[in-house]
Design a protein that fits this description.
alpha+beta; globular; disordered N terminus; disordered C terminus
């Protein structure tokens, strides 16, 4: 099973005051540390073991489900998500849920 079972909130530094944070779930993977998904925005948020956090936009719910049930999360991510979806490095201040997911 891909999930480690515990839920972890996105980073909570001073920049996040007043913002709804995406809840992420710790996963068992060689490269991915945590995965979160917002079905309303179709946004997938991944924290990598190296510490980087990225948001991937226009990811349908079924792709998130396939990721979370894949035998290898890293292999599925590289083959199915990384190559086809726009992304934003979330090391920059996070956007409020509901803001445009347009990458500028």
């Amino acid at each position: 099973m891909a999930c480690a079972g515990s839920k972890v909130e996105a980073a909570t530094d001073g920049r996040d005051r007043g913002r709804k944070l995406m809840e992420r779930q710790a996963v068992t993977s060689g490269n991915l540390a945590e995965v979160g998904y917002d079905p309303e925005l179709e946004t997938l948020e991944i924290q990598f073991k190296h510490g980087g956090v990225y948001q991937y936009f226009n990811v349908p719910a079924f792709m998130n489900e396939r990721l979370m049930t894949a035998d290898s999360l890293g292999r599925f991510f590289n083959a199915e998500i990384k190559v086809i979806t726009p992304r934003l490095n979330s090391s920059t201040p996070p956007r409020n849920v509901g803001e445009s997911s347009r990458v500028g």
